[in-house]
């Protein structure tokens, strides 16, 4: 129907006769001539209809925004004063000679450009119109190019694309499952997968060696800004490779994606242990664009009378740490200092001590601070030394239970980075490694920090003896403070797998019932294997600079897990429910 | 961990020292030397351990089938008498110098080669072992290569890969939906998509121009041999292209796939109208490998006294037709002729008349048949002429309601093709076009032959006037009697869409409730658009020559829609159901 896309026409096309199809982005009448900006996937070109071509002029006069047109015309150079440097097609225009209206359009309910200021609910209700906006077109175009580049990379590296089931059994990722009642197996339910974890491990047991899938995953959780009930994972698993090799392959992929799609060289990713990440950045996904670091000062304040510091300093579970903001004196207002005090309260801190270093040569009068009077001069000097403070710097303090200090100062660090625009680079990737195998719950039971199939870096005996000391062979890829992906070497030994289950309090019978097929698979020649999963939505979001995950998904759900366009979820008639052997629970039943 | 895959080693590698990882396919002890066939994804190579390398020899002596090994050795030529022409690596072997047992294996529950004769249930229960078999490895390897080739083709042709939701609203494909109870919207349910049909149409309304997705689709139907509750579709939609262009692009894709992956030139696909396909082949997906055709003889027998023929011949809804089997006299036994009589009974035919043409010059004694005596000589001669029968041919007859004759002789045609191996070629693709828009149900209501979004080739007024005469702009791609894919130009005009809904008995209120978003989308500038969907599983099945769809899916469901490996679907505790505001229906409730 068409000869060219609108958005690709350039000076080199001058004098060509083209047929274009697309939407009327704008139509204006100027000095008796009609100008139509015609839009398609590739961009916009200006088309001119003048009254000399009478028949088509009249039709052109009738078109309105978002009409669908097919038109023919000759490309010509625009007059020098009419060249539009803001349009890639701005040097040319199409002199229209034929026009067909393929479809009309009513007035759209909101403006389809960057000035859209309607609420997101309206955008989602008319998603098919919202997706016409340049930003959304670019995002989904980018997403498609990204997945193609991912597939090409993995294909070149010998990975096989293998599909795993959507209708499956509850998986142990820990989030709530979406359930699907079975019609043929009365009273039983499928679960939608939270990840293809066990299936991909079984594919390694089958000998496929290198597997990948761009896989839909599902979690029925209360949604935060960057979560969706269904999300997409770049899922990877390999056999006979150790952590280093898996990290090298996947790091290579991300580096290639940034190079190919954004022209950015990320360089080699630094490594950091989980312990160091928590200690210095207060986060297991540190944002290394921000040059601030937490500095331990427990030893410096253990003897002071000031209980706010000496208490935690002498508590084995306590922590006293500080963050220095270079030049903070001139950047931070009194109000900001107060606001940060409230901000760290979110993380349980009971206040935020600080020192403004006005003149560090004067330890008496040169330090402006609500707490400095409680600290002897030598301690003041020692703190300034350790933080290498200079005149004009501000130092923030955290003193409390270690967990609170770490989280509060870690969060403050990111907030300072954002508020004061302290970023030293645009992209800061790293690997976080050497995670603990388990974390302790309040009741003393243990939870797997990653998942129960993660291999520890010690023997089953050592693991059992001291589970909280054990480190795992897991690795997370972090970019700009966001976890892009995570993975691990997996357990390929039945005894080790059972040891982990036991430590997690999963007894023999439950092991058989839930994971019998995995335990069986491990005894018939399971190879050493491991892998990784990336969050595709989040990767696209970061790479396109989108502020919401919903802006990189064609048809996302709202925060209440609904689709306002199709009105899903919907009601279902009783006959259907009866076929599934279920019924709706009555309100009164739930109260009782 | 490894330097090479086992299956790729050749004479050119002689003298190289390699490290291999894989599974023990077979271990045998021959003249004091141990031979291990080591297997990985790429194939098998023979490794030799002799007693001179004492330490590793002992370990080699301990290995058993399916142990996982890492070993090192030098490639050497086999002695001429030991060359194995049946193995691609059969000219070489690895002289083992180091060996590590990475994992042991218990005796597997069935033999992992082509001689497996256990039931499919056992294979599915231990699917991770079944997938080690050469056939299954090849199938999934092929499937991955096929999807990669599909994506590359579509990518080169400007198609964007866009994901559509899995948690969505009931779609109108007509099969039973899988439902997912919503936790946040009490008493409401998502449906899993039977296809992304409406979403892909909306993407065209959004201006994405060319969309594709390799999409999971779901149907809760009672399963036939070639059906699965979840299946995979190559889903394609385009704007501003007419049927011819869409057919050209997708035919080009299938031709390229056959060329690239199987080295087969399919050539240009012939076209056939639905009417011709039914008339000549008794099927809307004719298998053109079989040279038999149905021939109309209604006019020849309308005057005969033989009511079995003249009855249908004089009934406007009747049909009398014949199929000639060249040389059938010597190929078909009396028993087969009887069996075919029973076979057509499946389709409602009350018998199968035939004539064995022993000597066509003798219309009296040369024709062997239970019915020929009821036919005058001139009719006999006319029939033989029309069918161009020769001595030794057999002619079968169908005389009944047109539907019965068409179906029965259509099925008989395929059965004869298979039984007598009449195939004239290996691959016979074609397009079937010009389908009716609607078919009539027994109660006089109408059903869409494809789906309600298929565009007719007439105006809304003509459509309304004579719906049963209307043809659609649909097209099916058929290969060897299997429907590979189907599609159509879609309705992009609101008035036309509403006309179709009305003809299907969907009233205004129901239209709004179920398809309001589509009808809205059509009024804001919907472009002309159309597309196609291929069944990926079926395509892989045909191209790999597999006999079951389950052999081309990594983790398929059984015929009762269960996974015997993970034991899905499973039971769910009451707490989970309560969160979803549903409960199980009690047995007694269902009886009442």
From TrEMBL, chains A, B:
Top-level lineage group: Bacteria
Ranges where the record places region Aspartate: 197-200
Binding positions for L-aspartate per the UniProt entry: 173, 219, 450, 490
Pfam families the UniProt entry points to: GAD, tRNA-synt_2, tRNA_anti-codon
Predominant cellular place of this UniProt entry's protein: cytoplasm
The reaction(s) this protein catalyses: tRNA(Asx) + L-aspartate + ATP = L-aspartyl-tRNA(Asx) + AMP + diphosphate
Any one Gene Ontology cellular component term annotated for this protein: cytoplasm
GO biological process: aspartyl-tRNA aminoacylation
InterPro entries hit by this protein: Aa-tRNA-synt_II, aa-tRNA-synth_II, aa-tRNA-synth_II/BPL/LPL, Asp-tRNA-ligase_1, Asp-tRNA-ligase_1_N, Asp/Asn-tRNA-synth_IIb, AspRS_core, GAD-like_sf
GO molecular function annotation: aspartate-tRNA ligase activity; aspartate-tRNA(Asn) ligase activity; ATP binding; nucleic acid binding
Job of this protein: Aspartyl-tRNA synthetase with relaxed tRNA specificity since it is able to aspartylate not only its cognate tRNA(Asp) but also tRNA(Asn). Reaction proceeds in two steps: L-aspartate is first activated by ATP to form Asp-AMP and then transferred to the acceptor end of tRNA(Asp/Asn).
Oligomer and partners: Homodimer.
Family per record: Belongs to the class-II aminoacyl-tRNA synthetase family. Type 1 subfamily.
Name listed for the protein in its UniProt record: Aspartate--tRNA(Asp/Asn) ligase
Species this protein is from: Microbulbifer okhotskensis
Gene name per UniProt: aspS
